[in-house]
Design brief:
There is one protein chain. The chain is mainly α. The protein has a domain of 62 residues. Helix content is 61%, strand content 0%. It is elongated and about 60 Å long.
Amino acid sequence: MINKWVFTTFTTWCCDVTSELKAVKISKETYSELSTIAGELQIKRKRPVSMDEAMKYLIRQSRKGKKISDLAGSWSMNDTEAKEVKESIAKAWETWKP
């Protein structure tokens, strides 16, 4: 069985010989999750994806600015809640002074 660290390091070295390599120890659970993400990226991009690329993807995702539109559709409310929100907004507008 090939050591996961060796395989990942070799893959990274083959794909990008200009970068300095660093070893990072991760748990089996984290490796499994990262492998799943790499697999999903591979399907999405329709090409092989290295663990290094998957990690870079996650880093970019965490640094991306969140947009208010990302929340669209995430809040489901009933008619009573909608009415309360409308009334609250109307009340707030009554107190607003230009």
